[in-house]
Amino acid sequence: SLTNMESPLRVLLILTGLTGIHSITTVSRVSVKAGDSISIPCLYGSQYTNNVKYLCKGYYWSSCKYAVKTNQHISREFSISDDQIKRIFIVTVNDPMVKDTGYYWCAVEISGSDVREYFHLSVTTGTPSLYTDQKITGFEGDNVTINCHYSNLGEMRWCKLGRSCVTTGYSGSIDGTGVTIDASVPNVFTVTMSGLKTESSGWYQCVKGDLQMPVHVTVTKPPTTSKYYNYKSKTLVSLDLKKILIPLSVLIFAVMVALFIWFMLKRHSKLLNSD
């Protein structure tokens, strides 16, 4: 089983001293349905900003094989991108098959022994044990909800990669953004992030037991608005200028067309009368 495999792997890593400094942070176990692509974020230290990053596949580090590298042509099966500002490189397994199940290593090339961290990918023919949308977008100041579907046992958490977590049954905050978890519905826990800030953007994880599912949250500025004071209700009302300007432009155009037609008809009438 996976648990039985992980134990000797961890022992081997400890005995051979290959765990090294935890310079890379990533998931430990993920599950995906065959045919559905999955992206895995790998957070690294600032000292490795300009180094080559890569994904290696194999149970043992000493015999793992390159899957994709940032300085080489991207393969059809795997792709990789490096965000040097946020110091995260993302590896994507495109259209995975059951045979792609196994251990992978997020790694950075350095002189000497490369730094790395492994994770296990399970590719299933049926519904994965933990899944959700990997891309979530929200406006600054608003709320977003993430539905984490699961079928396995264990504690439920919402974590920011490399940072803190909020556990089911408790409210908390991550980087100043409020987080609550609702587990009242069977086989799904709903995460609500409230009062979003621009710094709320980044990679998070649905966590259930020993499984994780990476989720990227993007926070953008809200649409341009203007405010006016409603004296009747004594409230400050926000107006979305885009929603007003577009229909207003259509109305003005319609009026101009109507005036043009009226002018042409009037002119035509005068010409008839003069004849």
From TrEMBL:
Transmembrane as UniProt keyword: yes
GO cellular component: plasma membrane
GO molecular function, one term: transmembrane signaling receptor activity
Cleavable signal peptide: 1-23
Boundaries of every Immunoglobulin domain copy: 27-124, 133-220
Keyword entries, A-Z: Membrane, Signal, Transmembrane, Transmembrane helix
Compartment list: Membrane
SUPFAM superfamilies given in the database record: Immunoglobulin
TM spans (from-to): 244-265
Primary localization class, coarse: membrane
Record carries keyword Nucleotide-binding: no
This protein's name: Immunoglobulin domain-containing protein
